[in-house]
Amino acid sequence: MPREKRDVKELKERAINSIVLAIELFNRPHENARSEATLILLHHSFEMLLKAIIKDKNGTVHAKGEKYSYGFDKCLEVAQSELKIISKDERSTLSILDANRDIAVHYYQDISEDLLYLQCQAAVTLFDDILSKHFRKKLADFIPERVLPVSTRPPKDIQILIDSEFSQIDNLLGAGNRKGIQATARLRSVMALATASRDSAERVTEKELRKAVQRRRTGEEWKVIFPEIAQLRIDTEGEGLPISLRIRKNGYPQ
Fold first, then answer.
1. Architecture of domain 6-61+68-141 in CATH?
2. SS3 breakdown of the chain: % helix, strand, coil, rounded to 5?
3. Given a cut of 60, is residue 1 above it in pLDDT?
């Protein structure tokens, strides 16, 4: 295999370092800032990995005349549309991660353990896929499989998972206005999934969030309120460790 360009090597190493630390934080026993740190580092790992590949193939990660390197959305666009190194489903998975990271950095949310695991395991699976395809390396070359994201109850069906999420949200909404803020914070992480089916990965707005809360209070089914989320499914391979988990959209080619 040809010797890697210096920038490519540096970007790849930072990508691997970030995802390893994200996995470590996910598995930590303490909750303080655990979900935020995990999401931020997962996001950073993919930005570095995609930039490493784009730099390797195109020779640059800077648009002509721009001072700064590509942002995350631009990396996704180049990776899918130009270089064909990620599929539409894979771009959707990364758009969900991007939405969750944005909330973690710029505001706040209450992401459940199941949704955090879903995001983390899907990210690790995809990172390993991309790393293997382009650099012919596996994540297991850098960390033992025993330290990959661990959950005592890995989700098998995203529809059942979302049903459970809304059951918890409904309980909070039914507890009065004092719990409404908690319900809204929990709903943000659920609604981040909606970015997977939106053109240009358009984010869910706070106005949409408030409207969704109002509709849910009237008893509307979540699949009616969020038809985009109802399109998603989970594909899993393997049992125990390691396990591969991918977020797919019904109706799209794999």
1. Up-down Bundle (1.20)
2. 65, 5, 30
3. no
